[in-house]
UniProtKB/TrEMBL annotation:
Converts heme B (protoheme IX) to heme O by substitution of the vinyl group on carbon 2 of heme B porphyrin ring with a hydroxyethyl farnesyl side group. The lineage of its organism: Bacteria, Pseudomonadati, Pseudomonadota, Alphaproteobacteria, Sphingomonadales. Carbon 2 of the heme B porphyrin ring is defined according to the Fischer nomenclature. GO terms for biological process: heme O biosynthetic process. It comes from Novosphingobium umbonatum. This is Protoheme IX farnesyltransferase. Keywords: Cell membrane, Heme biosynthesis, Membrane, Transferase, Transmembrane, Transmembrane helix. PROSITE patterns: UBIA. One of its GO terms (cellular component) is plasma membrane. InterPro entries: Protohaem_IX_farnesylTrfase (IPR006369), UbiA_prenyltransferase (IPR000537), UbiA_prenylTrfase_CS (IPR030470), UbiA_sf (IPR044878). Coiled coil: none annotated. It catalyses: heme b + (2E,6E)-farnesyl diphosphate + H2O = Fe(II)-heme o + diphosphate. Its EC number is 2.5.1.141.
Amino acid sequence: MSQTSSPPKCQPAIQRQPAHWRDFFALTKPRVMTLVIFTGLCGLLAAPGHIHPVIGFATILCIAVGAGGAAALNQWWEADIDAGMKRTANRPLPAGRMDRDSARDFGMALSGFAVLTMGLAAGWLCGLILLVSIIYYSFVYTVWLKPRTPQNIVIGGGAGAFPPMIGWVAVTGDITLMPVLLFAIIFMWTPPHFWALALFVKTDYAKVGIPMLPVVAGEKVTRRQILIYSVLLLPLTLLPWWLGHTGAVYGWSAAVLSSLFLGFALRVGLRERQGEDDKMKPEKQLFAYSVLYLFVLFGALVADRWVQVLGGSV
Ligand code: HEM
Ligand SMILES: CC(C)=CCC/C(C)=C/CC/C(C)=C/COP(=O)(O)OP(=O)(O)O
């Protein structure tokens, strides 16, 4: 098990020219962060109350910039690990298209800008939650948990669960039960989301000494764990409806989406791999569905709110 206690030592290919803007953009992990930004936007749109459109826009912009900054800091720290994995070897740092200090400075600048602007525009509670999520992802998860424990993403998953809470608090000004439930839903969703992927990129993580669950505990345990979190996710996503915080549009959407999630998870959880040339199709399907699932679930939350507003029930 590797214990990363200092930033990457290897300086890959020599970087002679200033990095291209495309590499700075890539450093923000834009594809992953679309869902982070979307859930933040949904938290903002589903919250009861009104927010000035400019403040609302600034809030989402700051979530995007802050998440991008945290992703850059993650890659600054992990350049040597990324260099050793096929999936990540072509990132700007391991591929030598950018020097490490630029990535660090870029990440710090984005993070600092996002937290300060968030505090000034949407209030310091939102600024504080954003700061916590940036530190959570770039330090608690990346530096501390990831190289040390197979429970890294269970605890570290909290980092990605904050954006809808930020969006919600930007509108209401305080942390009530609903933003906590939205946090809990993403927290519970993260292990099946990531372990489905970890099952089919297991060898990559093993190669660089990252103790992901399938590497340390094996596939069977990982499959069972995926199942446990997916079973718990179903009632958790229904809680906002049962407690009367949302209407039937969200409730039925959650019931259908989470049942399907459980269906995909059951196929992964209860099966055994058929030899080394197994294509891991159910695992790939669960991973792909996990992304679609969260998009649609949070979309349904907003649709539900709009139905209630138009129907005059709030
Ligand atoms: C600690 C928690 C998490 C871990 C370890 C994790 C890990 C990963 C990894 C390794 C990928 C593969 C794609 C890539 O390398 O860029 C991925 C894809 C993705 N993740 Fe996660 N993830 C986590 C949490 C989240 C959260 C909270 C969200 C959004 C709310 C999210 C959204 C996505 C999306 C949208 C993709 C697909 C990107 C694409 O289409 O290429 N992830 N995740
Ligand atoms: C507002 C804010 C700060 C949001 C952060 C959101 C967040 C925690 C997203 C996590 C998503 C992500 C890219 C995980 C990758 O894990 P990894 O870095 O272990 O993946 P890798 O193996 O691809 O590098």
